[in-house]
Amino acid sequence: MRLVIAEDNPLLRDGIVLLLADHDIEVLAAVDNADDLLAAVDRHRPDLAIIDVRMPPTYIDEGVRAAIDIRAHYPATGVLVFSQWVETEYARQLLAENASKVGYLLKDRILGTDQFIDAARRVAAGGTALDPDVVRQLLARPSIDAGLARLTGREREILAQLAEGRSNQAIALELHLAHRSVEKHITSVFSKLDLPAAATDHRRVLAVLRFINKRGG
Amino acid sequence: MAGAIQDSAGWRALLYCLLKLPLTAVVVYISVIELCVGLLALTYPAWWFTWPDGLGVGANSWAQTWILTLQGVAVLLIFPWFVRLVVRIDRALAYALLAPNSDRERVAVLEASRSALAADATAVLRRVERDLHDGTQARLVSVGLLLSRLEQRLSDPELREFVDTARRQVSDGLDELRDIIRGIHPPALDHGLATALATLASRSPIRTEFSAGSPLHTSDAEASTLYFSAAELLTNTARHAHASHAELHLSEFDGQIVLRAYDNGRGGARADTDGTGLAGLRRRAEALDGSLSIVSPDGGPITITMTLPRG
Q1: What is the pLDDT of residues A109-119, one digit of tens each?
Q2: What ipTM is given for this predicted complex?
Q3: Chain A closest CA to B209's CA: distance in Å?
Q4: What is the pTM assigned to this prediction?
Q5: Which one of B203, B208, B234 would you mutate to disrupt binding with A, by most A Cβ within 10 Å of its Cβ?
Q6: For tag attachment on chain B, is the N or C end more exposed, with fewer CB atoms within 10 Å?
Q7: What is the tally of structural domains in chain A?
Q8: Do the Cβ atoms of A70 and A26 come closer than 8 Å?
Q9: Which residue in A18, A84, A116, A118 has the most chain B C-beta atoms within 10 A of its own C-beta, making it the best mutation to test that interface?
């Protein structure tokens, strides 16, 4: 996996580069602002860009805007946005049209190294990684979507796991379910959400989008 | 009514009118007499010439009429000085009774210093948030990173567990820090009040529709007051209202910022009962010269409106 990093705090930037080096992941460029990030992506065409939300000059949402830019112009590059905060609003902006090759995580998740590396690989490979905090915020509300309202408690749990970007196997492990029963629940989620019977991965992405967009109010 | 009675400026204006009336009467009376007598005395020789017998007052000879003329000149010359004196008295009265007194000047000074304090407090909180974000939070994450990398390099399961515990402690610390910062200055506010309120509404456990009128500019102190008030109102709704639906609306009307919260719950909210924090919200509004109105019949629904004047 080839990646670039944009993080303005030198302590964290170096820390992440070293962490990734420990896992034999090549960091092509580590920059501290959005302009340099876009230049680095243009030059290296990496598999993944790991992007801090708050960067100079305004320290508000430079990272989110750069990520949306990268998604629009460099579709081969996945974006993994991370910050000290997760805002539902940013999640919606990042996933507005397409939930593949995108991740949005709390910085704390870096500490759980394996999950972080796993999320990075998943996003680079075309998947989704939503922070459990975002998912919890979205799930905290009763549904205003008829399809989502029909889901049982267990199915909602499964959908939340899908939104975080987990594989069937990981979901089975997390929820202490048999692999087959996870598959059954997922099929049921898809059918309740009226998702087309296309390739499974595509339907996963659609389910996540449905989940994100219908929860906005 | 009580306000009208306690309005000292009003009373003082009334006193001024009452004093001005006799002053004017006296001044008009004296002026007319003075002008008439002055002119009459000035022209006395002519009168004496016309009716030597008819007047019979003031003079018995030509010489005396000329003395009267000189007196008339003196009276007329004094007249402008008299007018100046009257104007000076009137000005003194007006200044004493109508000019802002020290109390009112003090109120103006206090109002200015209060809004400066509110702006300062918001700026300080924002700086604290920035410092925590760029400093403490980042340092905690990097300590956690080091612990993670250390854990990878350890083979002794006991040591690994130690390091793992330390790393979890760091994670918990970060969670706590995040909660604290959320209460100080939510970073979402940097993205504008409307966005922050939208995120707030989407986080509410009750289905909450947020809408905003034309984009409006608020001072940091106003934005922060409105944000925390909205948070409190939504929490109240979730805890007390038994509502299934809530609305939050932000708009600008007649030079005022208006935040309206509605829910279809059981109503019956009062600002004077504890627990709902409505009295606190009212104080927050009043600190910015705003107001809070509560329309909450028993059985619901409830509409609470916070109005702040544009700063």
Answers
A1: 888 888 899 99
A2: 0.78
A3: 6
A4: 0.67
A5: B203
A6: N
A7: 2
A8: no
A9: A84
